[in-house]
Amino acid sequence: MFVCPVCKGRLKENKFGYSCKKGHRFDTAAQGYVNLLSAKHAPESAGDNPMMIKARTDFLELNAYRKLAETVAEIIAKRTCAADAPEVLDCGCGEGYYTNIYAARNPKANVYGMDLSKSGVKHAASKARELGLANVRFAAASCFELPFADRSADLIVCTFAPVSNDEYARVLKKCGSLVIVCPSPKHLFELKSVIYDKPYLNQPNDYKLKNFAPADSVRLEYQAHLPSQKAIADLFTMTPYYYKSPKEGVERLEKLAELDVTCGFDILVFRKK
Ligand SMILES: C[S@@+](CC[C@H](N)C(=O)[O-])C[C@H]1O[C@@H](n2cnc3c(N)ncnc32)[C@H](O)[C@@H]1O
Ligand SMILES: [Zn+2]
Fold first, then answer.
1. 87 CB under 6 A from ligand 1?
2. Which residues pair with 154 in a beta bridge?
3. Is it the case that residue 17 has pLDDT exceeding 80?
4. 14 in a domain, yes or no?
5. Ligand 1 closest atom vs CA 159
6. What residue numbers bound the domain in which 259 lies?
7. Does residue 105 lie in a domain region?
8. H-type helices in the chain, by residue range?
9. Is residue 22 part of a domain?
10. Residue 43 has pLDDT above 60, yes or no
């Protein structure tokens, strides 16, 4: 359950939103998310902007990454320490596509999606309502200052989002697991081959996880067909290449009507040391 970003006391859910014993009150927005960002983050401008969230939503709704969501949902089912009502956090959940699948596939779990982007959690919460999911909550919050008590979570999943050794170790129970999803070397290689004259394979990240030990890893690689220029453009907009691509490469990409791409993910599972 969420804790108060001001005094760190437990937040109780009520008809307007949440409040703590000291009287700090956080209203739930009309779309169903709560803003638990502390004063040092600027809620209006933080995280992915509405244009990026819309592109991500439109792309993810094609279900090209559904296999990834389902594979992680199975890992969550196996890895949570509490048998009844495990607490699962999706840190940097974006627009909630994965979070809502984790909640639907793990009905006993209490699933929480957090992102700096208010547009992201706004979309995520309204989609959860549309899907009738009662076991998922969304908050605007930072991965580096999670609104959770020490040792309260069974599992944290972090997909293409910031990883914090200290904060994730603080919040996870002793038996907790951390699941990081990152691109495999060949992820989107065909897209990069259109944009760049010399495309490189993705290099592994060093997450500097001093409080975690590797427990398992799964590489998921498959081909997806992007059936339209809009699908290609949406995918491109949600990649880091959107910000650092040569003009000629982008023009080549804009001329394509369809594209087959490798979707490649490394799912890294860690246990708390
Ligand atoms: C590449 S997106 C991934 C979103 C989602 N996990 C997905 O795979 O569709 C990265 C997300 O991290 C969010 N983000 C960036 N910094 C963050 C932080 N410090 N705390 C929480 N979220 C953050 C962004 O707003 C964005 O939604
Ligand atoms: Zn409080």
1. no
2. none
3. yes
4. no
5. 6
6. 34-272
7. yes
8. 50-60, 66-79, 97-105, 118-130, 165-171, 189-195, 229-237, 247-254
9. no
10. no
d(CA 51, CA 168): 29
**Residue with CA closest to ligand 1 atom 24:** 47
CA dihedral 22, 141, 120, 225 (to 10 degrees): -140
Residue reference for tokens 């840190």: 91
Decide: 144 in ligand 1 pocket, CB within 6 A.
yes
Closest residue by Cα to atom 17, ligand 1, is 116
Mean pLDDT across the stretch 95-99?
A: 98
CB 114 within 8 A of CB 141: yes
Which of 211 and 48 is assigned the larger pLDDT? 211
159 Cα–ligand 1 center, Å: 8
Q: What is the mean pLDDT of residues 194-220?
A: 94
* Total domains in the fold of the chain: 1
For residue 93, which atom of ligand 1 is closest to its CA? 6
Query: pLDDT tens for residues 167-192?
Result: 999 999 999 999 999 999 999 999 99
Ligand minimally distant from the alpha carbon of residue 12: 2
State the burial class of residue 84 (Cβ atoms within 10 Å of its Cβ: 0-12, 13-18, 19+).
exposed
What pLDDT does 99 receive?
98
Tell me what pLDDT residue 180 has: 98
Mean of the per-residue pLDDT values of the chain:
94
Tell me what pLDDT residue 41 has.
62
Q: Identify whether 9 is part of a domain.
A: no
Nearest CA owner, ligand 1 atom 25 = 47
Q: Structure tokens of 226? A: 């992007």
- The CATH number of the domain where 249 resides is what? 3.40.50.150
For atom 9 of ligand 1, which residue has the closest CA? 94
Pocket test for ligand 1, best of 97, 111, 116 (most atoms within 8 A of CB): 116
Residues 6+ apart with CB under 8 A from 207: 163, 165, 180
